[in-house]
């Protein structure tokens, strides 16, 4: 089973109230997951990583074998790919956690995509910011 997941994180104020948006499709293009999550107070980069980790956990729980992640966060995509070094101590914890989960998939890929191709996840992330309370 393969999933294609679009993720986004948003923070109002950076740091500020944050949310995650996750939308997943199966290999036939059917939408199988659509979530808007309130994350609490954090930076935008922490929210981006939180969205990734939630997506990874959802895919792992569903016993997905092949996982393809799409994000408009160049930082997240390239740090996970190893193209960028992780200099921030807090973000290194997120990277470590994500890479631990990634090991459970037979095939994993993360791609940086333009924001215009990630509108649905962006909208869900912004909705997550507003879920406080």
Polypeptide structure, described:
This protein is of the alpha/beta class and 133 residues long. Helix content is 38%, strand content 35%. It has four helices and five strands, in the order βββαβααβα. α1 packs parallel to α3 (89-102). The longest helix has 18 residues, at 44-61.
Compose a concise summary of this entry.
By secondary structure, this protein is of the alpha/beta class. The protein is 38% helix and 35% strand.
Residue share in helices? 25-40%
Major sheet: arrangement of strands: 3-2-1-4-5
The averaged pLDDT comes out at: 97
Radius of gyration: 14 Å
Number of strands: 5
Report the portion of residues in β strands: 25-35%
Q: Low-confidence parts lasting 5 or more residues at pLDDT below 50? A: none
> How many H/I helical runs?
4
């Amino acid at each position: 089973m393969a999933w294609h997941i679009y993720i986004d994180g948003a923070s109002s104020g950076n740091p500020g109230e944050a949310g995650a948006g996750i939308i997943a499709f199966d290999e036939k293009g059917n939408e199988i997951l659509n979530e808007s999550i309130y994350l609490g107070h954090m930076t935008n980069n922490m929210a981006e990583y939180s969205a990734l980790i939630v997506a990874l956990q959802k895919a792992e729980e569903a016993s997905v074998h092949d996982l393809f992640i799409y994000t408009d966060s160049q930082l997240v995509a390239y740090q996970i790919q190893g193209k960028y070094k992780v200099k921030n101590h807090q973000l290194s914890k997120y990277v470590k956690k994500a890479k631990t989960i990634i090991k459970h998939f037979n095939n994993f890929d993360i791609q940086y995509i333009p924001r215009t191709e990630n509108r649905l996840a962006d909208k869900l992330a912004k909705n997550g910011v507003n879920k406080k309370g």
